[in-house]
């Protein structure tokens, strides 16, 4: 245990402000607004689905209009939908929708033609002759096969140069950094620099700078562990690979714990036993070129999930804001009549990436020394006003935070934001506490609907809240958010721990 603590102290995280992150990564900075790779390749998949569906349906429409042949449209549409599903699954299994290939969207005309022909043969025995009600299925087969093949090639003829151009412009940029100077870092760098994939080598980091650790041939050490942490927190890195010797299990565990709280994907080249870090489910395997990796954790709420969650915040948050807007002047009037002072209370709290955000609330405490809200409110707190007590019990004091949600500083659901001083205090109590900051803070959260609402008096309370928050970060889904929002209504009605 002492050895681990000694190593932990040796690689302790320095203040991110000690070195400007602009000096850490020498590569050109990626655009602030990037298109997720999965979304881009998903557009190709959708275009292929439309192409196959139209290839099956258009010949029947032509037959019906020009040839006067009556088709069973219900059966025909069922067959067309089945065909799109079969083609999509075959192409996906064969790597035609690999996000890392955006710079060179796979063409493979032989595979496209064979997949369509295979699908046509399956559907001939499924009901196409019955659907067309005649002897024209072979003509339909030839027209559908040729038109489908042409449309699929057309999709890729457009996607290939378009995505290659966008890749060169940095629209899909990802940055990979390696912790551990050695041959693994060199192999990752050589692979990423060989082809313009839009995935960039962000540097190699190592906190042991001796000559025995570094092979100087074309591999420069960008910085130490604290520099890597600062760069990741400033959104300059998307993926980190831990490439340390297999014999350094304890050090790998310490480094992994330090990096686990960062908003990045985390991978390890060497084996990590499940008891070294708390990574939840069993580790999966991936690769960068010829370098095999163990995936320690995925970047939380990334790519399409990030877009979906933002849409959720805008649609549901916007609706809640409009519905509750008539309450704002009534609450403001009640606050002003009850006690002197401003209507809104503004307080800096910890946001995503451990940045500071100004959180809005309706004021619930008396102004002045007695109204210092830096200390958490307690039951029968004398600082809380009469109107403030009602607002806290009904959670109406949190309504202005919908403005934070619409501005993009917060989300409807996520770990509740705390004061910076409380963040520092809770980090001393629970080592994994900073991992909460991988996502935006929320108006409500999994911890709150599980009974961890209000004051955090004991260590067990802090640990329970952090455990619930991390469970949310690791297992986010739209359905989970909707359940939490629904359960929040029940928790507000009960008024438990609200004071």
Give the arrangement of secondary structure elements.
Blueprint lengths: L1 H9 L26 H31 L5 H21 L15 H16 L3 H5 L4 H32 L5 E6 L3 H12 L4 E7 L15 E3 L1 H9 L5 E4 L6 H12 L4 E4 L15 E5 L2 E7 L6 H21 L2 H12 L5 E7 L5 E7 L23 H9 L6 H7 L3 E3 L6 H10 L12 E3 L1 H4 L9 H16 L3 H17 L5
Parallel strand pairs: 1-2, 1-4, 2-3, 4-5, 10-11
Antiparallel strand pairs: 5-7, 6-7, 8-9
Helix pairs in contact: 1-9, 2-3, 2-6, 3-4, 4-6, 10-13
Write a compact overview of the structure shown.
By secondary structure, the chain is an alpha/beta fold.
Report on the structure:
The chain is an alpha/beta fold. It folds into three domains: 37-168, no CATH class; 173-297, Rossmann fold (3-Layer(aba) Sandwich); 304-494, no CATH class. 49% of the residues lie in helices and 11% in strands. It is built from 17 helices and eleven strands. It has helices spanning 2-10, 37-67, 73-93, 109-124, 128-132, 137-168, 183-194, 225-233, 249-260, 304-324, 327-338, 386-394, 401-407, 420-429, 446-449, 459-474, 478-494; strands at 174-179, 199-205, 221-223, 239-242, 265-268, 284-288, 291-297, 344-350, 356-362, 411-413, 442-444. A seven-stranded mixed beta sheet has the order 3-2-1-4-5-7-6, sandwiched between helices. It has a two-stranded antiparallel sheet with strand order 8-9. Strands 10-11 form a two-stranded parallel sheet. Helix 4 (109-124) packs antiparallel against helix 6. The model is unreliable at 1-24, 26-32 and 127-133 (pLDDT under 50).
Give Rg in angstroms. 28 Å
Strand content: 5-15%
- Kindly, what is the distance between the CA atoms of the first and last residues, rounded to a whole number of angstroms? 41 Å
Low-confidence stretches: 1-24, 26-32, 127-133
Tertiary shape = flat
Strand order of the largest sheet: 3-2-1-4-5-7-6
Spell out the helices and strands N to C: HHHHHHEHEEHEHEEEHHEEHHEHEHHH
Helix/strand structural class: alpha/beta
Mean pLDDT: 78
Secondary structure: number of strands? 11
- Helix count from the secondary structure assignment: 17
Domain unit count: 3
| Helix share bin | 40-55%
Report the sheet with the most strands, covering strand number, pairing sense and barrel closure. Answer: 7 strands, mixed
